[in-house]
User: Fold these one by one.
Assistant:
Number 1:
Amino acid sequence: MSELVLDIKDLSLSFLTSGTPVSILKSVELQIAAGEIVGLVGESGSGKSVTALAISKLLPTQITTFSSGSIYFNGMDILTSSEESVAQLRGKKIGFVFQEPMTALNPTMTIGKQLFHVIRRHSDLSKEQAQAKVRAALEEVLIAKPEIVENQYPFQLSGGMRQRVVIAMAMSANPALLIADEPTTALDVTVQAEILNLIGKLAKVHGTAVLLISHDLGVIANTCSKVTVLYAGEVVETGKVSDVLRTPLHPYTQALVKSLPDIAARGSSLETIAGEFPDLRKRPEGCIYAPRCPKKFDKCSESPVLMKVDNEHSVACWAQGSRSSS
Amino acid sequence: MLRLIRARLAMLVIVLFGVSIITFLMAHVLPGDPTTALAGPHPSQETLNSIRAQFGLDKPLPAQYLSYLSDLFHGDLGTSIRSQQPVTHEMLAFFPATLELVLVAFIVAIAFGIPLGVLAAVKKNSFSDYIIRFFAVGGVSVPLFWGGLVMILIFYAKLGWLPSSGRLDIELNSPESVTGFYTIDTLIAGDKEAFINVLKHLVMPALALGYVQLAFIVRQVRSSMLDALSQDYYLTGRANGLGKRFLVVRYALRNALIPSITIIGLSFGSLLGGAVVTETVFDWPGMGKYVTDSILGRDFPAIMGFTVVIALAYVIINLLVDLLVYSLDPQTRK
């Protein structure tokens, strides 16, 4: 296994909401090696985006408390590092692509200028060289007429085009890690495939480690080599995409996989998960998924830890633990 | 761009037309007749009739309006009943003084209001934010005349630093009128002493008038900035490692200015209204004092002339604001 670009260990954090701390992430573990594309999957509110923002220390400092754990980026401990040294990483070593291409670009600055300023910020290029790099960066994300696009404003471009520009910006300094937070959720399905291919291709060419956040298992299956499943701020299962999606071990992952629409089974109604997403203000004792779990038993009143099933596949479920041990 | 200007100019004509009808009607609907004010105590019916005929007040209302409108097109605002002088001349004499005061107040308000609004937003809920907001609330809620009087009490009566009234000390001669702005005219004349004296006279009225506007601008800019700072593009900019100052100015402020400028431009009207009060407090020889005296003397042509000129100034300022917004917002340039 090559060196880890990102190593999140036992990360727990909480937000201060109307005076009381609410636990958002609990003992999150996540590792990404160079050149690897890792998916982070979970429903809304499961803490995917919070995890992503925590890596770049972009969470609002006044309300965020880190209660345990560490985030290592290329061996540097992000959480204990100063704001200045983390700011040095942003855009240069860690690229970010957000969900909403429609609002992710400055509406009053041309595409070329926005790219230009990011490029100049992270390099010693002269103005002319940076200008040439703007053109090259737009070409690299397969924008057909960069000489026109660079003089346009965001509102003149389609969502797919804007997301390409956002990717071009995030990749312009050739970062070691690209964090893509639901990069295709706001886009058409056809455009979605193009954007995912683009991210995959760029990561391969530049050897970039990618954290791909999605609530869409299909997206994860097509793009990633590994996947981590998050539920209510806790990792419930992690492993190779082929293992986790083909033989899911956690009841939640199993339910997720089952709830995927199947073209072959037309006419049958979609599977849903019974019960409701837990209120994080009142995190239940024991297994967080237990209230919705069909396989719940006595042991579930204790919090499960991630247990290795085989070399790379881990699951946080007592039912699984007892089955493999029995 | 040209299309916008043309559309706005057409609007200007319509607005002025509306203003002329409204002022004309208001002047005639209000009880009280200028003839009685003019004729002195216990006039004979004959005197009243001859005065009415002299000002065309005996004709039917529509006819009076039409002749008023046609004069207006020729730049003739009528003849003041009190002074028997053409209103246009009197406007030209008084308007520059008001405009100078209002513009200086406006510039002061913008020059301090925008940076303070930005600071308050960037340092939200900090000590400096609270201080700035405290003074902003003060500016919006303290009556202008009271603030002006307190300033006179401190800086004129107690400290003796600044003059309390007028545009220039009486010992000094008024500069030769080129622009009507004493600040500029004294500079053109090369009279340094008079220039400094003019500035001293301007400080208090401009601050008193500008403070209200400044408070308004601070609040407006702060809230637009808070909105811009919470936008996705600002987060993208941060995630791309752009510098804080660059982000605040080119990402947040650049976008926050668009709604701010529109609203600041609209508030220019209240500044003109505030000038009337300020001029009374500081005995500033501008339109405000002139119109107050005209209203008390029921001098219809003067009141109507004032209203039309103020409406014109207001519409022109908003035309400039529209052009500014147009140049700031690429979406309107489509």
Note: The mean pLDDT of chain B is 86.
Number 2:
Amino acid sequence: MEKQKITGSEALLKSLIAEGVDTIFGYPGGQAIPIYDSLYDYRDQLKHVLVRHEQGATHAAQGYARVSGKVGVTLVTSGPGATNTITGIADALMDSTPMVVIAGQVPSPLLGTDAFQEVDVIGITQPITKWAYQIRKPEEIAWAVSRAFYIASTGRPGPVVLDLAKDAQVGLVDFEYKKVDYVRSYQPEPDINPDRIKAAAALINKAEKPFCLVGQGVLLGGAEEELKAFLLKNDIPAGSTVLGLSALPSDFPLNKGMLGMHGNIGPNRKTNECDVLIAIGMRFDDRVTGDLKTYAKQAKVIHLDIDNSEIGKNVPVDVKVLGNAKHTIPMITALLEERKRPEWNAEFEPDAQEEYEKVIEKELSPASGPLKMGEVVRKVSEATGNDAVLVTDVGQNQMMGVRYFKYKRTRSVVTSGGLGTMGFGLPAAMGAKFGAPDRTVCFFTGDGGMQMTIQELGTIMQEKLDVKIIILNNNFLGMVRQWQELFFHERYSNTIMENPDFVAIAKAYGIAGRTVEKREELDGAIAEMLNHDGAYVLVANVEPCGMVYPMVPAGGSVTNMILGDK
Amino acid sequence: MTTKKLYTVIIFSENTVGLLNQITIIFTRRQLNIETLSVSPSAIQGIHKFTITTFADEDTIDKVVKQIDKRVDILKAYYNTDEDLVYQEIALYKLSTDLFIKMGAVEDLIRKYNARILEINETCVVLEKSGHYDETQALFKELSETIGVLQFIRSGRVAITKSRVERLSDMLAEMERKLQEKSKDRVCLSQS
């Protein structure tokens, strides 16, 4: 490749293009103007989406990355531009989302002097990134960008921050791009130990009641088909974490549902009844395990993960299988006996029946009364042929979303799992639409979370994005209200919300919308939303005091779920 | 309640800006105090060695070290107890020259503690002693109870493992081998 003298800013854009980037979510400002100036020349190759707040840029990049599997890219200015990205960066670290955040920085001679809009971005972001690097010379740009994409996208993915000093943006450099595919101090995929594969297979072959926990590691490794083959060969039932959802289609016979605090009864109870627990690409989060002292004590635990620091972190492990699930799963499958376990699989049925009678039927098919959150979610899901991308905010809307939406395809769920970021949803839905333009994107939110990033309606307007926004409006911060009702003697401290007319706000942004309150109008309203060409805000006025059941109280045992039937 | 023990964490890293911060934030999250810290270039050029001591239970230190090891710029992190290590600290003692000479029996003191005199001038004497904490502390105690110590400083621990396994050099050799393999693959790819 012939060398050519160009500015650091141009070198940055050429580097991004060399990494296959075509979409950037960002917001300009003083210390990023040279980059934006170069972007003007590259606008045919790099689509820049102007968000309304930098937090939105990070969540949009996350939504984009989660549905597409590509690295999401965010571009912001120094100081407040950079600090506004913190929530999204922390969220991406928790949920292993590949993201590169590029922040402008004051010129390097001014670093450390409290210059205008200077902030210690590296110091602030080191605890919440996989890698953070300050670029002070234009010569470092190509190397740092390539290294950033390599680190963000390989191994257990995560966010990387590049802090780009202004003098490096304007300085000239002989640009030459070499793709990084090796970092001495970083081994993205650990070597697989064949003895552990054998030990895992032996344990499963001997098991009478094996149970598999599916985490996001399956999706990140692209191991969905390998997982299905593994489960089918030995007839192993599986439950999924929130982030592992859609790795298996909802109607896959061995998919027994969701784990955790608001998961399904069967998968939670069977965790404490199985004899071998096979955890794949999940990290035994406290929202999955509840009380660790009573969690799966009877079972031998096999843990497959790419991240050594996750194995044994929360739950003691009998067989540790380090590696990419894409490779470790089929190696184990090859050693498995073909088995049928009809009795064991049938044991999930009474639990499913109990949950249907005590919780689901009431939520999905109420005879009368106000709209239920669950019924709105399920009806939207069915109206899309159960083939849309689900994006949620955080809280009751999220738990109802993941409980009642159904999936046919992988990478169909975008939600803030680990960090639980309210306000994540709307910008993430925008990013998801850019990442999967041919799919219907349905975003469920609450009246609280919607107002945390509502300004992104402006971005949706400007980009003419077809995002279906369903506000489950109960005029409460519902999940906190639920805890107050159950555990704080119904003292509703600061959870009552007086809300604006969301349809009028949508209208002000040129976005169509309507409010629905009556059950008999729900199907028509959903059809109108889905048939509408472009973004749509459907405000569903749901029962004010709806509850998400079943529930494992925080720190409780997964065996004892509250069903709300008393 | 698990018992806390003194662990020595040894870390090899790339020599990049901000690495110490990356390491200390992991201790902070687990509420671990760093007792001593010593950083210096290692025997291998471009690689730095951190020696950190901290009181922790084994379960915690194991998880902390795994989280340190996971950082991109860290080559290798591991932990040892005192039994696995030869370790040393160095201490300097600044004393008043007048009092030091008046005290008498200087030779006995130097021999008893195996200390060295680094500097003598009209106002002060500087002694040096290396050893374990108890040993440098014993000399400090004796001096402060007799003639007083004007200034005292003790370094962080430096440590070397007793085992025959040379973890870092073995690991670097393994990495080198993998890199070679990788570049071989690349050649194959470009030829095919």
Note: The first helix of chain B runs from residue 19 to 29.
